Amino acid sequence: MAFSDKIREIYQSQLEEIRKAGIFKQERFIHSSQAADIEVEFPEGSSLRKVINMCANNYLGLSSHPEVIKAAHEGLDSRGYGMSSVRFICGTQDIHHELEKKVTEFLGTEDTILFPSCMDANAGVFEAILTSEDVMISDRLVHASIIDGIRLAPAEHDTFKHSNMKHLEKKLQLHADKRLKVVITDGVFSMDGDTAKLDEMVELCEKYDAMLFVDDSHATGFIGKTGRGTHEKYGVMGKIDIITTTFGKALGGASGGCVSGRKEIVEMCRQKARPYLFSNTIAPVVVSGVLKVLDILSASTERRDKLEKNTEYWRKGLTEAGFILQPGDTPIVPVMLFNAKLSQDFSRDLYDEGIYAIGFFFPVVPNGKARIRTQISAGHEIHHLDKALDAFIKIGKKYNILGKTKQEIIEMYGM
Amino acid sequence: MEDIRDIVLDYVIDEYLEDEDEEITYDTPLISGGIVDSFSMVSLKRFLENKYKISIPDEKATPEAFDTVNKIAALVKEFTG
Which of A63, A117, A145, A190 is the catalytic position? Predict the structure, then answer.
């Protein structure tokens, strides 16, 4: 037997360490489709609970939209279920090409290449376009998938303090001798909900002859006046060299991602990016759904406008109730609790009140910055937000944190 | 010669602290305390190598060896003699 008792013990002790550290992840089973109202089984075997979902990336409420479901059905009927091939052998359909063209148009770039996920896009892009003569300079809070991509690339790597333009400039000066420089950032940062200062970053990149890479996964479809993303918000459309984004969040939420940007970069990915070369691309049924999503979003800004209004309502309600929020204007709204245990207790109590929102703590967020991360959707109605707000206030009173300063909360509960 | 610890401390404050009023000492846990993430440690290693004209092998450049200013100074001394 290859999986001996010794091997089993090694893994069991590692798992035990994860449990002891309080970071053991358990799935909650949702018995309905993804929406504002869901039915959840948690813990496993318990009876179903109807709860309001405040933690999905379903920003535009399109995950279960009837038109998207219909388009997916039609795609399944007309193009089949799977491709059984990677793209460059016999795994490319006309609709894959059509989606690449539509994404290019939507984001205002030169060209686009699909990947099985944005995780794959980020894991593959840097290795495909950089050599050991180059440097990658990344914001310290970029997403884990970018960190994996950086690790796989042969170029030198350096970081700059989160959103600190002076520090970024210093690093661009430090690496002035490199053949190619690429500055790497998220558009919207997933844990804090703040946005990268892309106007200033474009300026710095132009000054120091560096490329700019933006992962806009938490932005595409709703940030900016017509939802094109963080580059629209900062007035720099056409000036971002590489955008990666996902179809697994606002754009229907199924799966898939892409690299979009300068045509030479996209072509290099088509020739060299390993997750593109060695994995099937997005299934036809999902491609058909995303095509419909882009049609819906190109025809009207109604959904992103509703999301913006919902977000304002939610932020205002929580602020007036006396909670401390991370500043920002995106639908990622972190309610700061600072103490890790408090964040877990708060989340459990919310669930008991029928509100599903998760507490995050170190090492997912910096030590002493534990929070409940709420995410607003265009699928939420005001009655959802009011019910969630009532629950937050009730539990906030229970723990006596309403109207308290950060210092006062830390004095009561510790870091 | 300026104390290695002070040079490292100044670098850590300048390079890593988000809030420059935050106080750190020679024994503040940098990596396990979440001040320096292990991924950003690379710039600290490069700084030490350039500053002291040494080469720290990867197996020595562990998060444990880089966890406090005192430990980092001891590591540098090991290579500068």
Answer: A190
Cβ distance A123 to A275 under 8 Å?
yes
Q: Cβ distance A292 to A71 under 8 Å?
A: yes
Check CB contact under 8 Å for B42 and A157.
Answer: yes
CATH of domain A24-53+302-413: 3.90.1150.10
Percent of chain A with pLDDT over 70: 100
Catalytic residue among A171, A178, A181, A218: A218
Q: What is the rounded CA–CA span in Å between residue A182 and residue A215?
A: 13
Identify whether A116 is preceded by a cis peptide bond (ω within 30 of 0).
Answer: no
List where CATH 3.40.640.10 sits in chain A.
66-299
Which domains, and CATH codes, for chain B? 4-80 (1.10.1200.10)
Average pLDDT for chain B: 88
CB contact under 8 A, B34 and A366: yes
| ipTM of the shown complex | 0.83
Q: Which among A383, A252, A368 is positioned nearest to A314, based on CA atoms?
A: A383
Least confident range from A20-29, A128-137, A309-318: namely A20-29
Q: Quick check: pTM over 0.80?
A: yes
Tell me if B33 and A367 make a contact (CB, 8 A cut-off). Answer: yes
Q: Is A218 a catalytic residue?
A: yes
| Confidence at residue B21, expressed as pLDDT on a 0 to 100 scale | 67
Nearest by CB to B43, from A159, A362, A366: name it.
Answer: A159
Query: What pLDDT, on the 0 to 100 scale, is given for residue B58?
Result: 86
Q: Which spans in A108-164 are helix H?
A: 118-129, 144-152
Residue A231 falls in the annotated catalytic set: no
- Compare CB distances from B40 to A159, A362, A366 and report the shortest one's residue: A159
Measured between CA atoms, the residue of chain B closest to residue A150 is B39
Assign a CATH topology to domain A66-299.
Aspartate Aminotransferase; domain 2 (3.40.640)
Residue A358: pLDDT over 90: yes
What are the pLDDT digits (tens) for B30-47?
988 888 887 788 888 989
